[in-house]
Amino acid sequence: MQKVYTCFCTDVIHEGHINIINQAKKYGDVYVGVLTDEAMIRFNRFPAVSFEERVEMVKSIKDVKEVIIQDEIMYDKVIKQLRPDYVIHGDNWMHGYMKSVRDNVEKLLNEYGGKIIDVPYTYNENVKRLDAQIKEKLSMPEYRRKRLKQLLKLRPIVKTIEVHSGLTGLIAEKTVVEHNGEFDQFDAMWVSSLCDSTAKGKPDIELVDMTSRFRTIDDVMEVTTKPIIFDGDTGGLTEHFVYTVRSLERMGVSAVIIEDKTGLKKNSLFGTEVAQTQDTIENFCAKIAAGKKVQLTDDFMIIARIESLILERGMEDALTRAAAYVEAGADGIMIHSRKKDPAEILEFCDKFRLKDKDTPIVVVPSSFNVITEAELAEHGVNIVIYANQLTRSAFPAMEQTAKDILKYHRAKEVDSRLMPIKDIISLIEEL
Ligand code: SPV
Ligand code: MG
Description:
By secondary structure, the chain is an alpha/beta fold. It has helices at residues 15-24, 37-40, 51-59, 76-82, 99-110, 125-139, 141-144, 147-154, 166-174, 193-199, 210-222, 238-251, 281-294, 315-327, 343-355, 373-378, 389-408, 421-427, and strands at residues 3-8, 29-35, 64-70, 86-90, 115-119, 158-162, 176-179, 182-185, 188-191, 228-231, 255-259, 261-262, 277-278, 301-306, 332-335, 361-363, 383-386. It has 18 helices and 17 strands. The strands form 4 sheets. The protein has an 8-stranded parallel barrel with strand order 6-9-10-11-14-15-16-17, surrounded by 9 helices. The model has no long low-confidence stretch (mean pLDDT 96). Bound molecules: sulfopyruvate and magnesium ion. Residues 192-194, 204, 231, 233 line the site of magnesium ion (MG).
């Protein structure tokens, strides 16, 4: 009997999958791969059902001879082990980022005369509805909120990008790249106080009020499924912070980061160039503890941000605060620096990890941007936040366009740099 292999990366078996099995069995015994969670989240949606359930679901399909666990997006390992005569797949992998997977499979099969079978992809009303249901489920507060904790277990480092609108949310949600055979996408979104304020033309001094910040979260949530980390600035008065925690938790936000400053907060990247006051350890611990006391689920995280390096109070102060904040109940520590050299961040991480192996560490490498994600992960960092790069890349592009239209008295000269109208229309799905 010849061997036919297909790999499923799905939470639900629908007529499209059954069609593939029916086609496959005409050629031989059907082996079905189930992609692990770790592999799936590099390019696909977060699985809505557990890996074990997905394996059982595939096992129960009639005509499946064997289920194979596929732990990489590329098929190298499985093809070497199984040596299938055929690999069968929906023809949707003939374009877009999936094409590199098909090309790779073709190359591997060519080595011994195996063949690809492309089956027309099934996308009817029923499949579309199932797809929409899963997406909707992932966007619901009870599923979205816990996703950050799930990702912390699955990802060597959780990659987070700044969003401040539905449009930037869509970029965070949909951007997937394939580079040298590796796939990647962002795991989570950061609602930055700097960029949320900048988008409204306001300074980053806790001037944009919570109602407005929540409105931004809502805009992002409407069009995305990925988890949200909210920049809570100082958290405000403890008496107010407890209400913020409740609201964020109810909305389905996964974490709030609050910084240990008090009074008129200015952006950290100003450092000591402006007057900024660090909170006392006692006050800030009390704020953290009060927040932890009122939250209703185990999913929500309160992350304490330490400004000691920004305010040049020294490494010892940063480490003392980190230990105290964890003791007060913080679910994670964010350490910030505005130095170009990542040395002080790495020193903090190494020293913190000597005593605390588990509490997640968050960093925002805006200034120390030479460091790679892999290097950060080696030093025990769990979450990396690209806190403002989308805003900073959009602004010069828009400003240049505005200048050129004024200069040429028409828009023709800028046209070649613009996103085609067709693409912007199709970016936004209609129901
Ligand atoms: C933000 O993005 O608003 C932050 C990070 O708080 S930083 O701007 O570096 O302070
Ligand atoms: Mg901020």
